[in-house]
Amino acid sequence: MQLGQPVTAIGSIPRSIQGDCAWHGKEIQGSSSWIVHWTPEQITELEAAAAHFSKTGIALENITPESFPLQKLKPFIADVLHTLLQGRGFVMLRGLPIKEWGIEKAACIYMGIGRHMGSLRSSNGKGHLLGHVRDQGAKVEAGARFYQTNKKLDYHTDSADIVGLLCLQKAKEGGESFIASSMALYNEMVKRRPDLIPAMFTPYPTDRRGEVPEGRDPWFEIPIFNWYQGQLSCVYLRHYIEEAQTRFPNAPRLSQEQIEVMDLIDTILQEPGFALQMAFEPGDIQLLHNHQILHSRNDFHNWPEPERARHLLRLWIAPKTGRPLPEYFASRWGSVTPGDRGGIIVPGTKLSVELSV
Questions:
Q1: Helical (H) or strand (E) element with 45
Q2: Range list of H helices, 235-320
Q3: pTM score, two decimals?
């Protein structure tokens, strides 16, 4: 794919995306409709499934719906998945008693829920299916990824259909989550700058942060907006796009129009009322559909005690009912087959679950 070459006929792309997916934060900030509370009966079933799994002796990286059996919860999980893939694209599941469980039981139940939604994908080059979002003292300037720091994250998407975050411990101060509809973002961009539509749908070289699959460049090229088989998907992380321009002279150069696209994205996302703010509580699970949701967080400050440090567990999930994606997504996602795509695989990657940072 050559930079500047539209991936599809611009004239076939609608000027507006309608439906539940195109929401504004100000419309739902005061509502609790996006927060779903676990019932005591549901928690009992989750705990029973965890007890069953622990007796199997199976390693966590090999957890399956059969080894973590859920019966009554199947329709509930199906409804959550439908909201993610066909509705507004996000949900907060609240009320898991994780302080009673410990990290191993919490991880088992969290991964079991995720596994009933789809396959679990590696979220880094080490093959970790369970990612630890925690300040590890790493520096983005030295090539680290943002989740290893306490720094503010710019709005971005992850390289999987669904991203989940389970809160084990919240920060002393800061760390609030912000999410925004990339469908509403697209609508607003078209209203303000219709002349930039072609640049929205052309490839942007993006730094892989040293996690390079075999035979690939250290950057990948995917447009920010992608129209395919009647659906609009968004891929965005400006910092890594700019890093590719700085670090890799052979990466195609961005046009002025592409830079203006990113400037407009950032302007709109920062406008009051566009995004939805939410604060994590221990036991919360935030689930986002990356194709239609951008997410960020504030920087944060931890308590002095290491055991009280902000700590989230991340899952990347590929449901079998995921939307069709164009073939060029395979340059980042490894495949475009629903249920078997997304994640980061590099030479030597071995899938595993680490319960400590």
A1: helix 40-56
A2: 238-247, 256-269
A3: 0.92
Q: Which residues pair with 339 in a beta bridge?
A: none
Q: What is the mean pLDDT of the chain?
A: 91
Specify whether the CB–CB gap between 130 and 124 falls below 8 A.
no
- φ, ψ for residue 260, nearest 5 deg: -65, -35
- What's the token pair of residue 13? 């792309």
At 11, which amino acid appears? Answer: G
Q: How far apart are CA 206 and CA 113, in angstroms?
A: 31
Alpha-carbon distances, residue 257 vs 3, 185, 260 (angstroms): 12, 17, 5
**Which domains are present in the chain?**
35-333 (3.60.130.10)
d(CA 163, CA 158): 7
Of 105, 92, 111, 100, nearest in space to 38 by CA? 92
Structural element, H or E, at residue 109 = helix 103-117
Six-digit token pair at 123? 């979220």
Q: What is the pLDDT of residues 215-230, one digit of tens each?
A: 999 999 999 999 999 9
H/E element, 77: helix 74-86
Output the six-digit token pair for 342. 């997304």
Q: What tens digit of pLDDT does each residue of 175-198 get?
A: 689 999 999 999 999 999 999 999
